[in-house]
Amino acid sequence: MPVTLHEVTADYPGGHRALHGISATLPAGAVTALTGPNGSGKSTLLNLLAGTLSPTTGTISYERPCRPAYVVQRSAVPDALPLTVRETVTMGRWAERGHWRRLTRADRAVVDDCLARLGIEDLSHRQLGDLSGGQRQRTLIAQALAQRSPLLLLDEPTAALDAAAQRQITDTLTRIATEDGTTVVHATHHPAEAAAADHTLTLAAGHLC
Ligand SMILES: Nc1ncnc2c1ncn2[C@@H]1O[C@H](COP(=O)(O)OP(=O)(O)OP(=O)(O)O)[C@@H](O)[C@H]1O
């Protein structure tokens, strides 16, 4: 599902303008990398796409109504959440099911599939807080994948990971885009990850370069 931004600006309370007149198309079935220095507006753009922030002016058009899946920056998720890997991934089904409803066999099959695709089936009974950074990040991506959203957003999914874990996640994002037709958008500071993406949008001080 392609997403189109037209002349989008975004402001924070106090009048700070974080994005200026952004126009771009994020293609379906492809990975788009958002790059740029600290404070250039990458997270702000992801928040706009996720719908947690509204543009001040301009429009964001989705081909059809959708609830994006969003893997927020690692620092925003407490390390010691008392959840197993499987419970964490299962929470991805709540978006569709509502957490007051029993999960169906189909929901459990989606969770199994997401655990397998991220290679974390063997970790399913481990506590989130006991995992390595790379294992934890794969769990959070599996949770997002379990939402079965056509739009997957990730804010620096490989921050603080070693080169092997980075590569594993980069490869996984490519597979999600090509195999599922998902529109994948991720912010990154790693040149290798940006190079592996199908498209790159580079921001500087809130402007598209
Ligand atoms: N909640 C907020 N209130 C006010 N200003 C904010 C808020 N969040 C971000 N900003 C400002 O908006 C600008 C863009 O920030 P943003 O977090 O989008 O950048 P970024 O490119 O994601 O940075 P980083 O690489 O450090 O994560 C910065 O000048 C930042 O200070």
UniProtKB/TrEMBL annotation:
Pfam families: ABC_tran. Residues 3-208 form the ABC transporter domain. Keywords: ATP-binding, Nucleotide-binding, Transport. The keyword rRNA processing does not apply. The keyword Transport applies. GO terms for molecular function: ATP binding. This is Zinc ABC transporter ATP-binding protein AztA. It comes from Streptomyces carpaticus. The gene is aztA.
